[in-house]
Amino acid sequence: GRVAPPKTMLPPEHVRKVVRDHGDMSSKRFRHDRRVYLGALKYVPHAVLKLLENIPMPWEQVRDVHVLHHVTGAISFVDEIPRVIEPVYVAQWGTMWIMMRREKRDRRHFKRMRFPPFDDEEPPLDYGDNLLDVEPLEAVRMELDADEDGAVAEWFYDGLQPLRHVRGMVNGPSYRRWRLPLPVMATLHRLAGQLLSDLTDRNYFFNFDVKAFFTAKALNLAIPGGPKFEPLYRDDTAEDEDWNEFNDINKIVIRQPIRTEYRVHFPFLYNSRPRQVHVAPYHYPANCYVKSDDPDLPAFLYDPLINPIASYHHRDAAAD
């Protein structure tokens, strides 16, 4: 493969100068690079994607990122991949859910926007003149308890990638693999409780999961209440069939239309030509887990919700 030459790290003022110099593209000094600017337009969606991908989270006050820019100043990209540890990331947003409810009540950091924010003829704001010297607002963070949250309190809000340099938990700066001890995972699960679903029974999603949607798309069907897809095969017409119910020797006449749910869950039984269908399990083992709100209760207990029949002691009539 091609080896790219190493890029020299430059101070942020260099990129700001490039942006400032290219504020007015109608100047005559840019006419020689016009082809470069037009060619850079097709990469603008990717540049916007990388910008949105690296937007600071609410618990970060400032995020410093590397920027890769073209020598002519035609386009620039945020040269970062914001990898996260999924349980940590969900727990961080779980605490944000609580803090944002308080924020909505108190309105300390956010204000409602007035539309339109800019006039049609208004020039874009210059970053160096309007934003560079403005002190950023305080980060939105929940105060963690030293006893209950002690397993994560020290690093929970540490910048972009917590635990990045902790050996034994993360593989290193690449941030690709992680292994967290049980107390840390338990604390993260509790902090993320606002965003985690209470539904642990997989039978709840019967005929409404990924495999069912794949099968519905392959058969050009729409599950009631579910999404509608573009057909996977467009050549499935009744005129092209070699046989149908009128010329079949072993004819089975079904007077009522077959329900869509049957055709999706039993594709080989109720469809003439099933292609690329996914057969899902008919039933998973019964799940009797009941989430307890009281942390002082034991792990295994006789929950009255799933044991509604009371136990009574009946005296034998013969004993009387």
What does this structure look like?
This protein has 320 residues and is mainly alpha-helical. The protein has 9 helices and 2 strands. The chain has helices at 12-21, 34-40, 44-53, 86-106, 127-130, 182-191, 210-218, 260-265, 267-270, and strands at 67-69, 76-78. Strands 1-2 form a two-stranded antiparallel sheet. A hairpin with a 6-residue loop joins strand 1 and strand 2 (76-78). Helix 4 (86-106) packs parallel to helix 6. The longest helix has 21 residues, at 86-106. It is extended, with a radius of gyration of 30 Å. The termini are far apart.
Write the layout of secondary structure elements.
Blueprint: H1 12-21, H2 34-40, H3 44-53, E1 67-69, E2 76-78, H4 86-106, H5 127-130, H6 182-191, H7 210-218, H8 260-265, H9 267-270
Antiparallel strand pairs: 1-2
The sequence of SSEs as H and E is HHHEEHHHHHH
Q: Which range does the strand content fall in? A: under 5%
Radius of gyration (Å): 30 Å
Cα-to-Cα separation, first versus last residue? 95 Å
The SS-based structural class is mainly alpha
User: Major sheet: order of its strands?
Assistant: 1-2
Low-confidence stretches: none
Portion of residues within helices? 25-40%
How is the main sheet built?
A: 2 strands, antiparallel
